[in-house]
Write a structure and sequence with these properties.
The protein is α/β, with parallel strands linked by helices and about 260 residues long. The protein is built from eleven helices and six strands. The protein has a six-stranded mixed β-sheet, sandwiched between helices. GO terms for molecular function: 5'-3' exonuclease activity; 5'-flap endonuclease activity; DNA binding.
Length: about 260
């Protein structure tokens, strides 16, 4: 049977559910999270499913490159952090297991799993609202927005960013991504980045003489910042993971 793997960005899902439940109602959190996961398994006819979490010190690699990376993010609410072990245990009883790797962000774990599954001929559904996963999109890799019940596909990115998915990394290298603390080049915003990329390749933009005047000077002076931003935004797909896909095969819930 062909593999259809559902990779769930765990905190992306759980924190949004937590924000919508009454304060301290862990039962509601468990029930809504379980219902969301089970619904996605059914919707996408998944053969494998895994909840992927950030590992301890997960931001350390990118923050070693840029201390501002995700530095402004609010910490996880303590009541949520306290209840996560029970939430994971309850999900495991339903056959929905968790994966976290020390020092690695969930996004990179998902990217590595995605790469391995696709290379072996499988199909991947990335369940997340995180636009950074666009760089993984392909004929066999799709992204699902559970809360809006829609695909984050080519049309979505063309409509929202006026940019094709395959050029989003280049776009962020120029304009940055304030939500993740990715700087981009000072003085170049979304409109300018879009205009530049619609006219030139990213390589040409950093060749002296391609762009005249002050803007051209900004590009030359900001080349290193653009390279850093690209590196921060790019997901890692070649990590060594101890997990095996067989661990995450969809099975009947345990009692």
């Amino acid at each position: 049977m062909p593999v259809t793997a559902l990779l769930i960005d765990a905190l992306n899902l759980v924190r949004r559910i937590y924000a919508a439940v009454p304060d301290g109602d862990t039962d509601a959190l468990y029930q809504r999270t379980q219902a969301a996961c089970q619904k996605m398994v059914r919707q996408h006819q998944a053969t494998h499913v895994v909840m992927v979490w950030d590992g301890d010190n997960s931001h350390q690699w990118r923050q070693s490159l840029s201390p501002d990376y995700k530095a402004h993010r609010s910490p996880m609410p303590e009541p949520l952090a306290t209840t996560l072990p029970n939430l994971k245990a309850n999900l495991a009883k339903l056959g929905i297991h968790s994966l976290a790797c020390d020092g690695i962000e969930a996004d990179d774990v998902m990217a590595t799993l995605c790469h391995k599954i696709e290379r072996r001929g499988g199909r991947v559904i990335l369940a997340s609202t995180d636009k950074g996963f666009v760089q993984l999109h392909s004929d066999n890799v799709s992204q699902w927005h559970h809360f809006d019940q829609c695909w984050l596909d080519r049309d979505y990115f063309l409509d929202r960013f006026q940019m094709p998915p395959e050029r989003m990394l280049e776009y962020w290298s120029l304009a940055g991504d304030s939500g993740n603390g990715i700087p981009g080049i000072a003085g170049i915003g979304a409109k300018t980045a879009h205009k530049l990329l619609s006219q030139h390749s990213i390589r040409a933009l950093f060749t002296p003489g391609t762009v005249d005047g002050k803007l051209g000077q900004k590009l030359i002076e900001g080349h290193e910042q653009a390279q850093l931003s690209y590196k921060l935004a790019k997901l890692r797909t070649q990590l060594s993971l101890s997990a095996s896909l067989t661990q995450f095969r969809v099975s009947a819930p345990t009692t």
